[in-house]
């Protein structure tokens, strides 16, 4: 993919504060939770951060802002356009958001090219998988099992040799999720590292992270969970640590 951000080099955020970009807001009630969770995690870690939306329906990507981000969080939302993974959706299963995919794919490409840490949530994980050439299940047979109120949890099993297991310190833990699609075939360079009890893919990561930006990609919604839960707080902590480390390297270069 050719990205619009060959428009200059990365620039440091002002005042030494870390700048994290949220990929896209569709403007519904849950979107502020992404910013709130990041600020809460940063406060707990003693870090100063700024969190900004990179794109919204009425506002195109601010490429100058994108050049300054230290970390990227890919948000949840509408379904990925099925044609992007080779599906003809004759049954009308997919509920897409016109224009969003193209914008976020450019953002991902730009972040990847510059080794910016990426934390992908729900749709964000699915989009990363499609970006890497993977496919999605357009509608789960038992989608109702994956559409929980925020206060409810379902268990996920984590591969013991994965980065995710090292971060959360557990082989199983509970999460809250709301989705009707899921990763089917993992994309190039990705491996499945967590599944639900029915086999639905819950997380992917690099099979070999060498030479690639830090990546955690999960199907659940850690921003709707408490930071003291093993599959919420430790993920934010690790993301912020990767953001801080990457910013330090760029500043010294």
Could you characterize what this model shows?
The chain is α/β, with parallel strands linked by helices and 253 residues long. The chain has helices at residues 32-45, 63-68, 100-113, 123-131, 163-168, 233-252, and strands spanning 18-22, 49-53, 71-74, 118-121, 136-137, 154-158, 172-175, 182-183, 190-196, 201-206, 215-218. It has one domain: Rossmann fold, CATH 3.40.50. The strands form 2 sheets. Strands 2-1-3-4-11-10-9-6-7 form a 9-stranded mixed β-sheet, sandwiched between helices. A two-stranded antiparallel sheet has the order 5-8. Helix 1 (32-45) links the parallel strand 1 and strand 2. The chain is globular, with a radius of gyration of 17 Å.
What features would you highlight for this structure?
Rossmann fold; 9-stranded mixed beta sheet; globular; alpha/beta; 253 residues; disordered N terminus
């Amino acid at each position: 993919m050719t990205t619009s951000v060959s428009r200059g080099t990365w620039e440091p955020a002002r005042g030494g504060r870390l700048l994290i970009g949220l990929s896209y807001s569709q403007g519904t009630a849950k979107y502020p939770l992404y910013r709130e969770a990041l600020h809460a995690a940063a406060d707990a870690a003693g870090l100063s951060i700024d969190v900004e939306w990179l794109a919204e329906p009425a506002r195109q990507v601010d490429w100058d802002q994108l050049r300054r981000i230290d970390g990227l969080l890919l948000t949840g939302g509408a379904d990925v356009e099925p044609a992007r993974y080779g599906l003809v959706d004759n049954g009308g299963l997919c509920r897409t958001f016109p224009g969003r995919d193209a914008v976020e794919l450019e953002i991902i490409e730009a972040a990847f090219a510059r080794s910016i840490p990426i934390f992908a949530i729900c749709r964000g994980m699915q989009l990363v998988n499609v970006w890497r050439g993977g496919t999605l299940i357009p509608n789960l047979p038992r989608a109702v099992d994956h559409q929980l109120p925020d206060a409810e949890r379902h268990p996920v099993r984590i591969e013991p040799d994965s980065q995710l297991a090292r971060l959360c310190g557990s082989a199983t833990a509970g999460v809250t999720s709301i989705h009707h699609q899921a990763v089917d075939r993992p994309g190039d360079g990705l491996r499945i590292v967590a599944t639900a009890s029915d086999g639905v893919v819950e997380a992917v990561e690099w099979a070999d992270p060498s030479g690639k930006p830090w990546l955690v990609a999960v199907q659940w919604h850690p921003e709707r969970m408490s930071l003291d839960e093993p599959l919420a707080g430790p993920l934010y902590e690790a993301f912020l640590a990767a953001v801080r480390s990457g910013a330090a390297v760029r500043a010294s270069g």
